[in-house]
Amino acid sequence: MFAMCGRVRLSSDYSEIKIRLMFDPAAPAPNFEADWNKPPTAPMLVAIRSDDGKRIPKMMRWGLLPHWAKDEKISYSTFNARSEDFTTKPAFKDAWKRGQRCLVVTDGFYEWKKGIAVKEKQPYAIAMADDGVMVMAGLWAKWKDRKSGGEVLSCTILTCAPNDVMAELHDRMPVILAESDWPKWLGETMASEDELLALLKPCPDEALKIWPVGKAVGNVKNTGPQLAMPV
């Protein structure tokens, strides 16, 4: 089975995202292209709280690079973090302790369901029932390349046990945050550690819609809107 959550899409117009996420009007617009098939290590649009308390957009590598990483290879295995134990995992605990929480902005993700045949897998697209942006809980980090001296911003998506509709496809799902919880996760409003951890739960079943899509989504070279068309 494909890793959870291992493919997302983002095709929304940034002018709409800017309003929906309530980014600081003075924040520079990030440079991103619509992509209906983003794999780990791809650039992701995230929202973070700046040092002066403003909500700003950033593009970050999908797959968290802890400050101690020797190279970028670790990001192939750190694109997800389990909500049950990420606070103690070496790759994620520093970002958590430093309050480096982010909102990962997507239009949804894909999941594969096993078929009757051993190798048969049917891909499904998952989106918000109201067709709005799907905002996932994440962590972010800043990593310095020892060879080039350049800095890389990276992120991970937190996962949790599935709700009933997602349980039909996988035993995990991304933590999808309600808009009312965005300020708390970003640190814009006060919250204890226990209150933050309590946010890391499956979203309501009725918040999602799921439909089967073509198997072309299994190839990361395919990136067009046809990938999300129902079959």
Describe it.
By secondary structure, this protein is mostly beta strands. The protein has one domain (8-228): SOS response associated peptidase-like (hypothetical protein yedk fold, Alpha-Beta Complex), CATH 3.90.1680. 12% of the residues lie in helices and 32% in strands. The chain is built from 4 helices and 12 strands. A hairpin with a 6-residue loop joins strand 9 (134-144) and strand 10 (151-160).
What Rg, in angstroms, do the CA atoms define? 17 Å
β-strand amount? 25-35%
CATH architecture classification: Alpha-Beta Complex
Task: Give the helix proportion (percent range).
Answer: 10-25%
Rough outline: globular
What is the fold-level CATH name, i.e. the topology? hypothetical protein yedk fold
Q: What ranges have pLDDT less than 50 throughout 5 or more consecutive residues?
A: none
Chart the SSEs and their pairings.
Blueprint: E1 8-10, H1 14-21, E2 35-38, E3 43-49, E4 55-62, E5 80-82, H2 90-97, E6 101-106, E7 108-114, E8 121-128, E9 134-144, E10 151-160, E11 173-174, H3 182-186, H4 193-198, E12 208-212
Parallel strand pairs: 4-10, 5-10
Antiparallel strand pairs: 1-2, 1-7, 3-4, 3-6, 6-9, 7-8, 8-12, 9-10, 10-11
